[in-house]
Amino acid sequence: MRSKNLTAAVVLAACAAIAATPINASEHEEPVGNLAELMRAILFPNSNFLFDVQMTDPGRPPDPAEEGDGTVSSLFSGIYTGWQVPQQAALALAEVEPLIVKPDRMCQNGTPAPVGAEDYRKYAKQLTEVAKKIYAAAREEDRDTVSELTNDLAGACEDCHAIYRRYPESLRCK
User: Would the pLDDT of 6 be above 50?
Assistant: First the structure.
C-alpha cells in the first residue's frame, strides 16, 4: 500500500513539474506574416465585429439561414452567432499583443516593425486592456458598454496608426 502511495506521489510530482515548465518555443520562432498581414487577418475583422455592435444587437434572434452556395465557408458561416461573435472578437484582440510585438516582425514594406519602441508597446498594451474590457462587457451581454468601449478601441488603433502608419515617413510601417 505504501508503495502505491509513493508511486502515485512521484507521478503527481512529475506531472506538476511538467505542467509548471513553460514552453517558450514560440518566442524563438520567426513570425510567419508581416505586421500588415497580421492586422488584416486578426485585428481588422475582429475590430469590425465589435464595431457592428453599435448598429446590430447581438442578442436579437438570428435571421433564418439562407440556402448556401455549397462552400465550406457558407456552410459554417452561421455556427457562431449572437453574443459569441463580439465575445470571440474581443478575445482575439485581447490575446494578440504577443503577436504584434513579436521580435523579428516585419512591416509590409520590408522594414522591421517597431516592436521594441516604448510607445508602440504602450499602444499594444492599450489595445489589450480595452479588448479585455470589451470581452467582459460582451460576456455580460451589455451592448451599451460594448458600444461605448468601441470608441476606446478606435482610439487605441488611431494612437498607434497616427505614428506608425501615417506619419512621419521615417517611422512609417506599411
Answer: no
Outline where 52-83 has alpha helix (H). Answer: 72-76
Backbone angles phi, psi at 24, to 5 degrees: -110, 25
Give me the residues paired with residue 112 across strands.
106
Return the C-alpha cell found at 113: 516593425
Confidence of residue 117 (pLDDT cuts 50, 70, 90): very high
Q: What residue spans of 24-173 are helical by DSSP H?
A: 25-28, 35-38, 44-51, 72-76, 84-95, 97-100, 118-139, 143-161
Lowest mean pLDDT among 35-39, 55-59, 72-76, 104-108: 72-76
Between the alpha carbon of residue 124 and those of residues 16, 42, 85, 89, 130, the distances in Å are 33, 14, 22, 16, 10
The candidate with the shortest Cα–Cα distance to 42, out of 121, 116, 97, is 97
Cα gap 113→100, rounded to integer Å: 9
- Judged against a pLDDT cut of 60, whether residue 24 lies above it is answered with no
